[in-house]
Amino acid sequence: METLLFLFPQFNYMAPKEEAYFKMFAVQDSQSSAMKDNSSRQKDKERKSRLSLFLTKSGSHENVSPHKKTDTTTSNISPEAALQWSDSFEELLNNTDGVETFAQFLRTEFSEENIEFWLACEEYKTIDSETKRLSKAKYIYAVYIESESPKEVNIDYNTKMAIQKNMEHPTRSCFEAAQMKVYSLMKKDSYPRFLHSDIYLRITRRKGPGSTMFRRRSRSCVFNERGEVKTEPSAW
After folding, report:
1. pLDDT (tens digit per residue) in 122-137
2. By three-state DSSP, how is residue 68 classified?
3. Looking at residue 228, what DSSP letter applies?
4. Could you say which of 64, 97, 202, 208 would form a disulfide bridge with 103 (CB–CB 3.0 to 4.6 Å)?
5. How far apart are CA 203 and CA 78, in angstroms?
C-alpha cells in the first residue's frame, strides 16, 4: 500500500472505496508473488529429483537395479550355497548371488538404497583416476547423500556434513564413515529378517509350495500305565 502511494502521490488522499480497492490490489499482488515463489521451488525440487533418478538409472550396479527381475536367478541357486549365507553377513556379501538375493529382499522392504549405496562405495574405493573419482563422488552424493534425494540413505547430520565438505576434493575414504553406518544397519536390522524371509527360505527349500519343512527332532512326554512321565523321541 505504501509503495503504491509513493508511486502515485495523487492518491495520498483517497475515498474509502478507493483505499479499499488499492489494499485489495496490494494483497492480491503479494499472494501472486508468493505463489510464483512456491511454484519455482517446486519445479526446482522436481528437476533435482529427475536428475538424481537419471543418475541412478545410469549407474553401474545393474545387479541390484530395482527394475530388474530376479526370480529366474534365485531359482538357479542351490540350497547348499544359500545356506552358507547364514554363516555371517560378510559371507552373504562376498557372494554375487547372495548380494542379488539380499537386494531383492530389501526391495520388498523399500530399503534397497542401502545395498546400492554400499556397493557404490566399494566401487568408488577402487577408482585411481582423480577425474573419475570426482565424477563418481558427485554421483554418490547426488543420489544417496543429498537431502531429499530419491535414494537418500539414513545417516546422521554430522556424517552428512563431513561428506559435503569433502565434495570439492573427495578423498578415497570420504564415504567410509557413512558406508560403515549403512553396513551396520543392514547387518543388525535387515540381515536377521532376511534369514527368516520367504525369499531366503524358499531358496533353501525350508518353506514354499512342494518343499519339505525340516524340523529338529524333539522329545515328547507321554504317561505310562502307572501315570509316570515317560519321554519318547518324536519324528518332527
Report:
1. 999 999 999 999 999 9
2. coil
3. -
4. 64
5. 7
